[in-house]
Amino acid sequence: MFKRLIVTLVLFTALPVAAQLSPSVARSIEKAQTLEQDAKLGEAIAVLEALSAERAYDKAFVNRALGVFYWQYGNNDKAIVHIQRAVDSEQLQDAQAWQTKRMLADLLLIDGQYTAALQYYYPLARSVPKKKTDQAEDVWLRIMQAHYQREQWSKVLSAYPAYQGVVKNRASVSALSLKLGAQLQLEQWRGATPTLKALLKREPDNKQWWRQLAANYVRLEQPKEAISTYLLAKRKGIALEPSEQRTVAQLYANVGVPERAATWLKRLPENEQDAQTLAQQASLWQQAREWPQAVSAWQLAAQKDSQYHWQLALMQIQQGDYQQALTSLDKADKGASAKEIALTKVRAYYKLKQFDQALKQARIAKKIAPDEAVESWLTFLKKRQQMQQRG
């Protein structure tokens, strides 16, 4: 985040020939300015580099001009060298001195020399000239950026109140983003919530802020607020990722609304409808007592993974579809033990009044692992068979 900082350097729109400059230097400055305005930046630099300024103020002014031109030329290293010389000379005064230090701090920030930049920014923030009060906002923003780049999260947050004191309620997206990033790094989830809301006021169509706010509510274990945020984002026309749709489904399940949870899973794209997702959907439909939907989802799950034939069979038996259940049980080789499958077949055949088949399955179950349940079925079915024979 913010790997490329856009730093606004206040450059000379016109290089004033100050009264303090010696005549020869003033003429060279004017010539360099004219060349720069004619897009002859290289020649402008050559004119100033050829100067042999004697007076300290002349040297400082020339270095300042060269620093600006080198920055425009794309040579940040030389720009820093010359602006640094202008600053170190202490010949520039008042607003001109302040602006030159500001330029140096900005160049250092661009160059990734964050600690060095901060050494200038803090004094600059405390001494903004009366005619440049509008720049206090930018200086505090740069301070936040420099600390952010150094991963000094607490210092980012410490600088924010000073920035806010300058801008009042006009905090920029850049400043709020820096504050948010620091809060998230420090796991200050509660503090991040109002920051995200402030960002959404400024950029209501930015899906990143909606997603982060919803995720933040999830971290805070506030499922209802998270659901509301996702729904608001959706109404704003923001398409939710499949992972976010799954999150919404899980949130609905957590707050005891399985029908909506299942509906959100059902809305997932076809390529996201794997066996596990379909099985989860089926379980949710069962919890919601939406039996036809549950059966349909189990059928789809079983088509993709045979282990789900067992759950499908149980659901079909519950719904009285005994013949269909037997078909599913014949394929249920993974979801249950052979004995469980045999006993379930006993029940299905019994409901279909196919007592001979039921007895056959009960005997299979006994061979696998005899117990009281198996013996009860055997006893009952044998008596039933005897009654039929007598009749």
Automatic annotation (TrEMBL):
TM annotation in the entry: none
Signal peptide annotation: 1-19
All residue ranges annotated as the Bacterial transcriptional activator domain in the record: 172-235
SUPFAM superfamilies assigned: HCP-like, TPR-like
InterPro entries (alphabetical): BTAD, TPR-like_helical_dom_sf
Keywords of this entry: Signal
Keyword presence, Signal: yes
UniProt keyword Signal, yes or no: yes
Pfam families: BTAD, TPR_19
Top-level taxon of the source organism: Bacteria
Name this polypeptide is given: Bacterial transcriptional activator domain-containing protein
